[in-house]
Design a protein that fits this description.
There is one protein chain. The chain is of the alpha+beta class. It contains nine helices and twelve strands. The strands form three sheets. A four-stranded antiparallel sheet has the order 1-8-3-6. A four-stranded antiparallel sheet has the order 2-7-4-5. Strands 9-10-12-11 form a four-stranded antiparallel sheet. It starts with a helix and ends with a helix.
Amino acid sequence: MMERPDIFLRKVSLFADLSEDDLKKVARLVRSRQYSKHEVIFHANDDGNALFILKSGVVKISMMDQEAHEVILKLLYPGDFFGEMALLDGQHRSATVTAVERSESLVLEREAFLNILHQQPELLLAMLLTVCRRLRQTDEKIRSLMFADAYGKVAETLLRLSNEKGERGGDGICIRLPFSSKELANLVGITRQTLSRVMREYQRAGVLRIAGRQIFIIDEARLQREALG
């Protein structure tokens, strides 16, 4: 049985404090969109005319560097929203968003979104807090790309993934990767060859165990030291 939009939206931090009536108003304005694996939801520099709330799947936010290599800034999961910056400032999209796996989002058009903000100004604060948090994470990623060595970059990325979607169990913290090793390398900010070398070293040292697209963090403290170093 499909979950009603208003029930799902209640779980989204942006709309969590709305009344039932207001939540149903928002639910009537959104439309569902499905995306296949690797489908681009929007490109950097596209017009920003909608807010997206991810209902299922995983999407990545990415940009191209000066050498036309993809840099993945962040992964988003169900309950996350994206596309808000272009709606707030009226500028073009600042990054590209792509479905990592088959995904579904609820789409709220700009005019409807701005009308809701006029009626519910508290949503703006919640949205700005999310924007600020993402900007801090982007700053941290830039510092990592500039100053950390490959081992520190891998450690920082794996710890971030474990905090976002890791599952603790008897074998350590399990991270189920929704994408290829090349995309993981793009997320870390290193080449795939360097990623393979670092992951092999971490496995030999007993820090990680890799089984297909599952990574088990066995020595979390060692990764934290590497990330700080």
